[in-house]
């Protein structure tokens, strides 16, 4: 499919490319330019714009379209402005140029994760307002600054503030993943991130001797046990075609530290692991399993948490739930296929669900390879524009859900 020339490019695509050019790359995002861009969008759409500084220099921007019945809880559309770093030498085009090739693919950091969704929200609202539509429930669009580094100075703080409580969010949409098939992925929960450092202590000495009870030997036992668990979970995933990646617990050895010289046996060594624990796992029992693995390796082997999420929540996905019923009915009406699954990594949805706000992770990208955080991250303009159409159907359905007991 040949793309149109710049003179007749769809205005929504032009806006998307403008947003991609704002260098909100971690660890030093241009937050000021991003906020100014969003303020201008609010002005153009006649939306109120609130800037909430949750930490010094970290602003959550909230654009609001009031509903006709302020007594009802609101719809919250969340996205993050920041993107991950790039290695330009591995890109076919400048990752911040928003280059569009002759086939209509837009290259840029954030095309999938998740500046596309930010603009799709805005352009769906624009379309509905131009059509003169209005809905009972208020629609809030939140743009958070630091999801890519954990949301600790963004959504995690924002949900504790009175400004968030004042939004009275009843249901939220946040980011999802592309789907390479004809279906669209939607995520109703996510795995808990546990970053664990295992430290082993043992007898030191000269590197020429067969020293007993070394830190390395004991650490090796723990590493072998954890990697054996990893393989077991991998086999469980591969042997069951009905399981998705988010339904099993993953773990990767990500750091090894220790030693001062080649000829000195170290007294202390450590290993870092990135666990992503499935939401149906008993977290207390899993922590006890970690203790047991360390104890089995020998005396002087301990572990500590660098990060530990303990509030996994699941958003209902049965038709008896009014939010899911409204969401899924849109796809039935549009003759589109949904695949509901558990998000394999973490998003800001975890903070929303922990506050009791049901949330679905959804990025309307099908027939699209998953390229978030990858080189040559890209999205076809036709997929991007179709996403606006989908949101233009989703927002009326969600913002028109009848009064619920939770609204009171």
From TrEMBL:
PANTHER family (UniProt xref): AMINOACYLASE-1
Chief location bin: cytoplasm
Catalytic-site annotation from UniProt: 82, 147
PROSITE patterns, per database record: ARGE_DAPE_CPG2_1, ARGE_DAPE_CPG2_2
Name of the molecule in the record: Aminoacylase-1
Binding site for Zn(2+) 2: 113, 148, 373
Subcellular location per the Swiss-Prot or TrEMBL entry: Cytoplasm
Subunit structure: Homodimer. Interacts with SPHK1.
Molecular-function GO terms, alphabetical: aminoacylase activity; identical protein binding; metal ion binding
Family from the record: Belongs to the peptidase M20A family.
Required co-factors: Zn(2+)
Keywords annotated in UniProt: Cytoplasm, Hydrolase, Metal-binding, Zinc
Cofactor note: Binds 2 Zn(2+) ions per subunit.
Domain Peptidase M20 dimerisation: 188-298
Record-listed E.C. numbers: 3.5.1.14
Organism phylogeny: Eukaryota, Metazoa, Chordata, Craniata, Vertebrata
Organism (species): Otolemur garnettii
Catalysed conversion reaction: N-acetyl-L-methionine + H2O = L-methionine + acetate; N-acetyl-L-glutamine + H2O = L-glutamine + acetate; an N-acyl-L-amino acid + H2O = an L-alpha-amino acid + a carboxylate
């Amino acid at each position: 499919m040949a793309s149109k020339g710049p003179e007749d490019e769809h205005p929504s695509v032009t806006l998307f490319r403008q947003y991609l050019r704002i260098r909100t790359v971690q660890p030093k995002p241009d937050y000021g330019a991003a906020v100014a861009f969003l303020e201008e969008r609010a002005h153009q759409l006649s939306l109120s714009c609130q800037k909430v500084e949750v930490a010094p220099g970290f602003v959550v921007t909230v654009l609001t379209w009031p509903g006709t019945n302020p007594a009802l809880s609101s719809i919250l559309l969340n996205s993050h402005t920041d993107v991950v770093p790039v290695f330009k030498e591995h890109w076919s085009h400048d990752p911040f140029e928003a280059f569009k090739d002759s086939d209509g693919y837009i290259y840029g950091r954030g095309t999938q994760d998740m500046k596309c969704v930010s603009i799709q929200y805005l352009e769906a609202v624009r379309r509905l307002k131009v059509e003169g539509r209005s809905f009972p429930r208020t629609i809030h669009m939140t743009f958070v600054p630091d999801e890519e580094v954990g949301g600790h100075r963004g959504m995690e703080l924002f949900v504790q503030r009175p400004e968030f409580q004042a939004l009275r969010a009843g249901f939220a949409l946040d980011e999802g993943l592309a789907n390479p098939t004809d279906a669209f992925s939607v995520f109703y929960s996510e795995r808990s991130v546990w970053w664990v450092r295992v430290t082993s202590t043992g007898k030191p000495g000269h590197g020429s001797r067969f020293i007993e009870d070394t830190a390395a030997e004991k650490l090796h036992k723990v590493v072998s046990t954890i990697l054996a668990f990893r393989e077991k979970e991998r086999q469980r995933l591969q042997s069951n075609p009905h399981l998705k990646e988010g339904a099993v617990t993953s773990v990767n050895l990500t750091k090894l530290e220790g030693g001062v010289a080649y000829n000195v046996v170290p007294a202390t060594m450590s290993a870092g692991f990135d666990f992503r624990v499935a939401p149906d796992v008993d977290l207390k029992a899993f922590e006890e399993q970690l203790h047991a693995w360390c104890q089995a390796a020998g005396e002087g082997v301990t572990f500590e948490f660098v990060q530990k999420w303990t509030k996994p929540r699941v958003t209902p996905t049965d038709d008896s739930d009014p939010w899911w019923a409204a969401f899924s009915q849109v796809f039935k009406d549009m003759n589109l296929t949904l695949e509901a699954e558990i998000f394999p990594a973490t998003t800001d949805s975890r903070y929303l669900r922990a506050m009791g706000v049901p949330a679905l992770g959804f990025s309307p990208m099908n027939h699209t390879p998953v390229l978030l955080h990858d080189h040559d991250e890209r999205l076809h303009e036709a997929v991007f524009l179709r996403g606006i159409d989908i949101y233009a159907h989703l927002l009326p359905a969600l913002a028109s859900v009848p009064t619920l007991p939770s609204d009171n």
